[in-house]
Amino acid sequence: MKLGTFSYLPAMTPQQVRKQAEYVVARGWNAAIEHVEPKHAADTYWTMWRLPMFGEKSVERIIAEADACHDAHPAHHVRLVAYDHLRQTLGTVMVLYRAKSA
What is the CB neighbour count within 10 angstroms for residue 17? Predict the structure, then answer.
């Protein structure tokens, strides 16, 4: 099953994940990390990992939260969600880690 536009590409390298987090920070978007079991990946709602990182300017912290979520839930997909507070919409959503079993 495909999980958005980036899922048609090979898995992102750590450097590519960093570039995506830098893009989110550069636009002033609010990052959040979400996870879900593979069997529920097509559902509308994923579980949020902790609270959204409102105003976060540290790329390292965003990546660390994604890594922590992946470490805590290795059998889940983990994605980065970025909210554009000016347009009141999603700026981007991308799966950073696919479940090991998927």
Answer: 20
Whether the predicted model's global pTM rises above the 0.85 cut: yes
Question: Parallel, antiparallel, or unpaired for β 30-36 and 77-84?
Answer: antiparallel
**Structure tokens given for 10:** 């090979």
Strands (E), the chain: 30-36, 47-53, 77-84, 89-97
pLDDT tens string 8-54: 778 889 999 999 999 999 999 999 999 999 999 888 799 999 999 99
Ramachandran area for residue 28 (φ above 0: left; ψ -120 to 50: alpha; else beta) = left
CA-to-CA distance for 41 and 45, rounded, in angstroms? 8
Q: Three-state SS for 65? A: helix
